Amino acid sequence: MRKLLLIFAIALFGLNYAQKAPAILKKGFSKEALSQKLEDEEGKTITIQQILDQHKGKVLVIDFWAGWCRDCLQALPKAEELEKNNPNVDFVFLSLERSKEGFEKSLVRFNMKDKDNYWFASGWKNDFNNYIDLNWIPRYMVIDQKSAIAKYYAISPEDPEIQKTIDSLLQ
């Protein structure tokens, strides 16, 4: 029984630690972070800077997710609702799948093919994810019309600060 309680306590502490917001909430990106390469659905390489440039002038929500992530899949209906309720906002989905095949399968399985999707072929640990202190998924960021970070850290699409941030940027 003691072993079971100890395992439970460690697991609970680990989960709380993983979801802890970073101490510093950044407002911009480093040069290295912006240079991070991803792949699109066709396998073409694109950088974070190029993605931001495509959405400059618009409010952008970045959704970090993976098809193997139970929390991501549970959040998906609310993320879709957030997207539907904000037609003047762009949404980009950054996948942390473990393989290109996993990325492609998840896009089909979870009806994501019609969205703006990219995959970190370099894996979880890379210049962009390290810079933004990515320690858990799902994770959401709101980027303003000038490509600055307006909302740095949210772990749920239901976080009221996401909508509040979007609303303030659209005024």
TrEMBL record:
Gene3D superfamilies: Glutaredoxin (3.40.30.10). Residues 27-171 form the Thioredoxin domain. SUPFAM superfamilies: Thioredoxin-like (SSF52833). Pfam families: Thioredoxin_8 (PF13905). Residues 1-20 form the signal peptide. PANTHER family: PROTEIN DIPZ, THIOL:DISULFIDE INTERCHANGE PROTEIN DSBE. This is Alkyl hydroperoxide reductase. Keywords: Signal. InterPro entries: Thioredoxin-like_fold, Thioredoxin-like_sf, Thioredoxin_domain, Thioredoxin_ResA/DsbE_sf.
